[in-house]
Amino acid sequence: MSVASRFVLAGALVAASMTVAAPAGAAKACVLGKWRGTSYTSIIAGSGAETHGSGAKGVRLKITRTSLAYDFDKSTREKLVGSSFGSPLFESWTTYRKKLGVKATVKGSKKGTVVLKHKTATGTATGTGVTTWPEKGKPKKWKIAANLRTGVPETLVPVKSSFSCSGKTLKFFSSYRYRGYDISIGRVFTRA
Q1: pTM for the full model?
Q2: Which domain holds residue 69?
């Protein structure tokens, strides 16, 4: 065996002995990746009144360890139905469009939390809402990133959520209080 061959063999042995298993955290976490919204429900309750939200399917979401990116362009309307002490109060819908990015802290893989750094929200995403019953109202439009940066909550973009992930399905749950109202939100996504 030549001297050069011995060096190559020795180098291969050293490299092989230095190979170690990747840490468990190095594997791709279940929650990370691209997702498409398949289900959304919300309940806003307080002072004898309740508003139930549904719809908003098709929201695209990309999750990394440090950020979330939303694309609302292919999403369906969010439908809202309000009541007071069990009597119908109003019906409305909201359409979300364009894109939103926000920095976040994502902890966990199959179970964990997502906490947005809401003051970092950027993008051109908008919401347009219209009351449809008992009387049709005029459309009202707002910028989602501006709302988040100033602390105004958006039900489709909760600031803090817990999640569970099982490969192809990601479920988020959020619960918080805002201006005297208790808000609970459930969202389900499938891998895109």
Answers
A1: 0.83
A2: 31-191
